[in-house]
## 1
Amino acid sequence: MSSDVRFTDFKSDKQPTWCPGCGDFGTMNGMMKALAETGNDPDNTFIVAGIGCSGKIGTYMRSYALHGVHGRALPVGTGVKLANPDLEVMVAGGDGDGYSIGAGHFVHAVRRNVDMTYVVMDNRIYGLTKGQASPTSRSDFETSTTPEGPQQPPVNPLALALASGATFIAQSFSTDAQRHAEIVQEAIEHDGFGFVNVFSPCVTFNDVDTYDYFRDNLVDVAEEGHDPTDYDAAKDKILDASKEYQGVIWQSEKSIPYGEKHGLDTNTSEIDDGAPEGAMDLVREFY
Amino acid sequence: MPADFNWAIGGEAGDGIDSTGKIFAQALSRAGRHVFTSKDFASRIRGGYTAYKVRTAVDPVQSVVDRLDVLIALTPRTIEENLDELHEGSVIIYDGERTTMENVEIPEGMIGLDVPLKRLAEEAGGAIMRNVVALGAACEVSDFPIENLDSALEKRFGSKGQSLVDNNKEAARAGRDYVAAEYDHEFEYELETTDADYVLLNGDEAIGMGAIAAGCKFYAGYPITPATDVMEYLTGRIERFGGHVVQAEDELSAINIALGAARAGARSMTATSGPGIDLMAETFGLVATSETPLVIVDVMRSGPSTGMPTKQEQGDLNMMLYGGHGEIPRFVLGPTTISECFWKTVEAFNLAEKYQTPVYIAADLAMAVTEQTFPPEAFDMDEVEIDRGKVVDEESIEEWQNEKGQFKPHALTEDGVSPRAFPGTDGGVHMSTGLEHDELGRRTEDTEMRVEQVDKRTRKVETAREEEDLSPREFGDEDSENLVISWGSNEGAMTEAIRFLEEEGIDVRFLSVPYLFPRPDLTEAVEAAENVVVVECNATGQFADVVEHDTLSRVDRVNKYDGVRFKADELAGEIKAALQEADQ
Ligand SMILES: Cc1ncc(C[n+]2csc(CCOP(=O)(O)OP(=O)(O)O)c2C)c(N)n1
Ligand code: SF4
């Protein structure tokens, strides 16, 4: 790890094909800044991406990376981190990827509390498949597959995380560049699973959850003097549907990451040339 | 008496059938006898008929037969279920004081031993030991010195205190003494002991042990019969060798966690059965496209859907050969014996890393849950070789970078295999994706690159055909005009069936095929034979289809799909019939 890493070192030379104005640009820049700020470099960083416009992020960033299948990025990140704890692991994807097809994995990744960071680029729509309802779409939001709106309440990802035993829950807004980067940085620094839901507007298919909407409705919890280690206060904020919050909303002081609990502290990529020392004992157990 | 002795204990699930059977099997193995076990079990925890069968001989035994010499029947149904296999002179041990067993009628010609199992157990310290009393009775019947039971009892109960061990030893002796005192019958059985040193294990355990031997450091799985034993074996053991087991939330997660660990550079594995293989299919393609080495074990059971979860079948071959959308280079290894479960697992890791592909291990229930004895040398750890393939480090990385210093994880090479840089390697930064990609791993729809990458991945299979020894295992008379081909666990029954056939004057050449893809070319063998029979545990003859496809010849089929493995004598009969039909 070199100390003179700049955030642009995390940029690949591939030009993003996101629509001009897409929130994902800001989300990505903040992630790169946060990685550089926390002393990481591309050689020790592993980014796992889901599928969707958001999932393309792994292509535009420079690090070790895997762009996997729809909804399964969290398990991949889990395997990477547990097999090599020296790596900084960041998982990114969309709201459809994370809260619909991958919802089961989300709950269990939260419970497992592996020391990695999960950034969800929440545009409240399916972008890449051209504008169908996502789990965070409003119940009356008309889309090509829900002409009258989904008619179901949206998932509250923060509440889902809290109910699953999350140790770090934050929310940010991609255009509020400085704050967003700070919040992701805190998630990286958290010992355990750092979850950040990022409002990352889709300028092409979502004309409701727009930049203007978030700008008008966003409240920064830090400005309200919120104490993220106060569980009840965090719960109130998370369940308050009247506002959109930004900041670190919940952080447990008791978080023990999975790897630490299980004594996983070594890179397992190195193995012996033959069977490991003492392997014959395994045979004798069957005597 | 015949050279082999067949014994069983049967009752309701929850009666402790499994552990009692295992104790007896272990005692026999420790007494230097070969053992082969099989289990009949239903998919429920309490209630439902279940049995544990042991076949034993001084010479190796590799299958079950249609004969039962001694049966411990804890329920009347046990006798009914095994009626076909019992014969004149068979001994049935039962507890006539048990209400359900009061009116049991012992079939003509058989010997019923009414032993008050529960009462004797209570006298020895607890009713729970009644199965052990029965074991003692069985020792007397088979003239098997009861001391041999002691070490098996110690192994089973030692951790729970010496007094429990002693009580069990006493219970066993009570059973033996009761039979000796109450019945003056001379039984025809006599189980000789030898000084041979054997270990007793099942296929799932052999796979787990093979994984550790191969340096596997990571396992992620989701419980499913009959693959769970692999995970249970590894849990608590792999840690001693620096590894870790994760119980995932489902199979989709399991294979993705395993994939992540593999990408981080660890030797990594998952195991499941048919329904789980279905769920893993999407990621299977990702594993191949991202060129990640991964070992995936399919312990087949009866399908489709949830089918018969505790029953034997080899119905997933097509899924393993062709499953997944698009075209996916892969290996499918099919161990044919329990010891081969170990060696094929070791090989699977080498092939996975050497060729950077997913490798299926096609195991089946019959092999996975039953135990067999082997000399410990059958698992000689000094013989384990590790090949990690083209791993690059900081020094060698430049060779694989483009002019801009970017690493090429999917470099187009002659043998189809690209270099591999573990994350953390300076200068090796790269991404991989399930999308079609260029040499750098970046998405492309360029027609030329698409074709080049597909060809590159496919070339691995061609390279393997040239470099690896994919030969079948050969048995019987190599000049015979009758050729029998099988895969998976049928080898054991078939090698014994050869002897039954010989007795009837029928010679066969038998090829047991452990490489299902890529696989050996059987054309020459098929063309040299007059009659060809492919034996497998499925209804449609999935491997027979493959043989016909590969050799452009028609073959005969012996299929079994009732949920029960082939028995050696039964298989001999079916092959004889198939050959006779072919001759007509
Ligand atoms: C198994 C599977 N089902 C469906 C798809 C098609 N698909 C691709 S992206 C996507 C939705 C992505 O939505 P979201 O996660 O919200 O990301 P966004 O594009 O909005 O950033 C879907 C359904 C797929 N790739 N794989
Ligand atoms: S469709 Fe929406 S989410 Fe996708 S790139 Fe365009 S603006 Fe961004």
## 2
Amino acid sequence: MSSTLIKKWFHSIASPRGFYQFSGRLMPWLAAITGLLMVTGLVWGLLFTPPDYLQGNSYRIIFIHVPVAFLASAAYVMMAAAGAVTLIWRIKLADVLLKAAAPVGASFCFLALVTGAIWGKPTWGTWWIWDARLTSVLILLFLYFGVIALRGAIASEHSASKACAVLTLVGVVNIPIIKFSVQWWNTLHQGATLTLTEKPSMAPEMLYPLLISIAGFYLFFLLVLLLRMRTEILNRERRTQWVQTLTGNGLEK
Amino acid sequence: MSFNFSTPSEPSLKGGKAFVTLLKRDLTLALRSPGQTLNPMAFYLMVASLFPMGITPNPQTLAQLAGGIVWIGALLAVLLSLDSLFKSDSDDGSLDQLLLSPHPLPLLVLAKVTAHWLTTGVALIVMAPVLALMLHLPAHAFSALCLSLLLGTPLMSLVGAIGAALTVKVQRGGVLLTLLSMPLYIPVLIFGTGAVRAAMDGLPYFGHLLWLAALLVLALCLAPLAIAASLRILVDS
């Protein structure tokens, strides 16, 4: 009995209208928690943590750089998963997600490069270096550009959705290269700051604000993504009765 | 040019025959309009000669850059030639015939990509030593250059064909094709030029070649599926 309930719930959420209503209820809570976590993580990290013994105060950019860099590749993996769902199960919502996530992921990727450059100047003495990690993140940015450009170039929404799904899936080959570039090539960029399998090497007073900041940025990403998806849904469903009623267009007639 | 595939009632074991037929057809087409093959080669030669004029004619500096120049030139030439891979077939309707044929589409697109590699990639490999000589690449790095291109050019044809398939219905899709394919070419470029650089320094370069070979096997398995899927998506609409 419960499994049919879950199935029913899932079907209502996966429909554009159900998703719009569900995300509308979720939004205020999500916004509140996002604000709380981001403010806590960033204020704690940027103002109250002790300076690093090696890098002084410049290391503080990790509270922005690390979450943003995580999200840059996580967003792409999520898009590839959505692409697979689009191609296999043809759920419309997955394509809405893919379309909405691409520019957000690209901006996070851009931010990761910019904050990395700002961090690189005092620590390595240069804004940019053709290091394996930096180069592979730059390629990731190009991949985002490709997905966005392909979407813009194909007029039919139906073909654009599938073409973008194929392209994201092809490009996902690059993600492990980014992930392991620091280990495979012994280059300037330092190793992973956090790993799931090992005990963190950071001091707890730095680790906790970082974790809070990462959670905050993830929720922020989710919040922006939901906003963009809601707009996209309204745009795609603009001719349906429920959107007409919602926006008041239907009432005028 | 017309070509005849077996009807659905015939046994489906004819996939191999269809592959050969399509390969022959594309090679014949390339032979009849040699511009398609010669233009990328001329382009290759010109790109490579821009570097001595644009950077420096100094042999020592050129020798350092030679591997990269030859590789980047090959990459750009492949990109240039890929634009027409499915375009003319799409324009004259034979692409629709391919999609309707009873044979597995990934096999058929593999035939087209093979023909593309035989007409473009092989020509680039043949030209590479000449360009390397003009750019003063040390003689002991020639084999690394040729071997890396031998593995790298089919890889570029396969990966680029995905981009070509995705942009086949796009008006003036050439720039878009570049934008889509370039990020996927960068790992190939890194390992290819890595092999040449290692050979120049007298280091073993076999590892780079193995990476290229591994990527080639991966692309051979997956790229035809992606190309076929892309073509179906765009032609169905």
